[in-house]
Amino acid sequence: MMRYLEEYRKYLKYQKNYSDNTIDSYEEDIVEFFEFLEKESISLLDIKYDDVRFFLIELDKKHNKASTVSRKLSSLRGFYKYLINNNYIKNNPFSLVKMPKKEKKLPRFFYYNELEMLFEVPDIKTPLGQRDRLILEILYASGVRVSELVNIKISDINDEEIKILGKGNKERISRIGDYAKEILDMYLNDGYQKLNIEKTEYLFLNKNGKKLTTRGIRYILDKIIEKTTIGKKISPHMLRHSFATHLLNEGCDILSVQELLGHDSLTATAIYTHVTTDRLKDIYYKTHPRAKK
Prior knowledge:
hpI Integrase, Chain A; 2 domains; DNA polymerase, domain 1; single chain; 14 helices; 3-stranded antiparallel sheet; about 55% helix; mainly alpha
């Protein structure tokens, strides 16, 4: 069994160009299946659909999440496809197995008062404080992804409009309001000039004057939230979620939110409609003739 796995590792590395971390994750899933087969005295090359079904029952007993089961099935399906392509077996028993339904997780977002607490943390008298405040302002004002944020160049900025290079190299224009524009102007005229010792073209820089990474943004946000009383773990995406949720709460139509977020599909945007009940409640109590005495 391990010989086939070693061959598969080389295939993933040299032909598929997968990273070592990805390959290690696949191997971990496959080895777990090997252990199941050994325990049940089943041959790797002679498994049936029922054997796979019993493996899934075993995963369920271990309380694996649906997303985890889906990942393991995907790893094993790919492995057995490799075995078929190399004529080690004739049938892929995993091709008959349906992926479990994904758990629908509602996006986590900040309330208005929590955002105000975040904005108050950075010291805008310092270059790094101006940068950190601008990170918060632009993430919330435009809803850009953190991967898009770190790639903003000075040349992409035109007053209150920022050209964003999104997924699939698709360009869109994001807008920022007065609050973000005020901090942007302050940063460009002060903090950015002091940080830009490398004379780079990127907007967000670290203390050494180099372009900030997505990991750097996450570290900055973690440090900011530690200085507040907000009992939540922060992620850059939460500011994007807050952007979309608050727009819908204030009456923005979902198609406009889709365009502002840079979503290709309306389905990806529709999840935010599940967290806008506050606005609907408010409208109901204000407008229904028999909502209140």
